[in-house]
UniProtKB/TrEMBL annotation:
PANTHER family: GLUTAREDOXIN (PTHR10168). It is found in: Cytoplasm. Keywords: Cytoplasm, Redox-active center. Its main location: cytoplasm. This is Glutaredoxin. It comes from Musa troglodytarum. Belongs to the glutaredoxin family. CC-type subfamily. The keyword Ribosomal protein does not apply.
Length: 95
């Protein structure tokens, strides 16, 4: 868990993902389309993936070092117009 916390605090947006997960793909695509340069850690491709939670629910999205949640939370924030302000506050977007 310490490794996850350390990685999550190194960038404005960090996504822990699995390369074969369609929900992860959707969330990564959304951030890409918004212009966010998120750090993505593919747990199934990383040798340290097991210690970082290979069996944990993904995607796990951190914004500003804080766990925001998974696909449902990210999409709810986006559709409610609250994701972009949160990304701007974390320094992930400059509009």
């Amino acid at each position: 868990m310490d490794n996850v916390t350390r990685l999550a605090s190194q960038r404005a947006v960090v996504i822990f993902s699995r390369s074969s997960c369609c929900f992860c793909y959707s969330v990564k695509s959304l951030f890409h389309e918004l212009g966010v340069n998120a750090a993505v850690h593919e747990l199934d491709e990383d040798p340290r993936g097991a210690e970082m939670g290979r069996r944990s629910p993904v995607p796990a999205v951190f914004i500003g070092g804080k766990l925001v949640g998974s696909t449902d939370k990210i999409m709810t924030l986006h559709l409610g117009g609250n994701l972009v302000p949160q990304l701007m506050a974390a320094g992930a977007l400059w509009l």
